[in-house]
Amino acid sequence: MTILAVTIVVSVCFRLAFWQWQRAQEKQGIIAQITASSSEQWWRKVSDPEQLQGASVQIQGYIDMSNSWLLDNQIVDNRVGYDLIVLFQPLGHSEHYVLNLGFIAAGQDRKQLPEFDLPSGQITIDVEFKVGDWAGFTLAKSPDQSAHHRNVLQYLDRAFFIQDTGQQVSPLLMIAKHALFDGVQPHYQAVVMSPDKHRAYALQWLLIGISAGVIAFFACRSKKLGRSHYE
């Protein structure tokens, strides 16, 4: 039974070490691709969208002026407010992207929404990609269940934007890294591990697995020696 338990522990540690090493290689490949590419459209050539998590790119395009939304319950620098959400269409693309422009402070009266002027012409913006679940933890049953305003959202959901606008919407969420105008403050920070961090975790799991095996070996050996002594 002891041997089986040790074998399982060591196997799991080695599998985790191998997985972390694979993740490091994948991240290194993406970084090399970004470094080697001189095209602003490199991100469109990435086969696995999940590999774009946390990647940054400078994009030119237009904000869809027909719609904007405010993501509720945001707190930045002890101020309560919203995140300003728009649809963004990069140059040369038919698909739209949901773009989080950043934080806008709310007024004292929650029934009165903050005012802002979106840029109507072509813009150049540095964005960061967020891949996967946009909503995070929420108790809301639908994005647009505000008691006072249709465009105040409780969480972000791609299906909602497709239905609400009738546009093709990418599964990639874009987040602005710099302010487009006064009064809006980008604040999102992606949690992305570097290749070196993945390698460090791989080494850690490998050493744990080896240590577990060595400790079990000497424990079994001591037990056998003890039995031989009494015999």
> Mind describing the biggest β-sheet?
5 strands, mixed, barrel
**In percent terms, what proportion of residues is strand?**
15-25%
Shape: elongated
Tell me how many strands there are.
7
Average pLDDT score: 81
Q: How many helical stretches?
A: 3
Structural class: alpha+beta
Distance between the termini: 23 Å
Question: Would you give an account of this structure?
Answer:
- This protein has 2 domains: 2-20 and 195-230; 54-176, no CATH class.
- Helix content is 34%, strand content 22%.
- It is built from 3 helices and 7 strands; from the N terminus they run H-E-E-E-E-E-E-H-E-H.
- The chain has helices at residues 2-36, 158-165, 195-230, and strands spanning 56-63, 69-76, 79-90, 97-105, 123-130, 152-153, 173-176.
- The protein has a 5-stranded mixed beta barrel with strand order 1-3-4-7-5.
- Helix 1 runs antiparallel to helix 3 (195-230).
- The model has no long low-confidence stretch (mean pLDDT 81).
Write the layout of secondary structure elements.
Layout lengths: L1 H35 L19 E8 L5 E8 L2 E12 L6 E9 L17 E8 L21 E2 L4 H8 L7 E4 L18 H36 L1
Parallel strand pairs: 2-6, 4-7
Antiparallel strand pairs: 1-3, 1-5, 2-3, 3-4, 5-7
Quickly list its features.
5-stranded mixed β-barrel; 231 residues
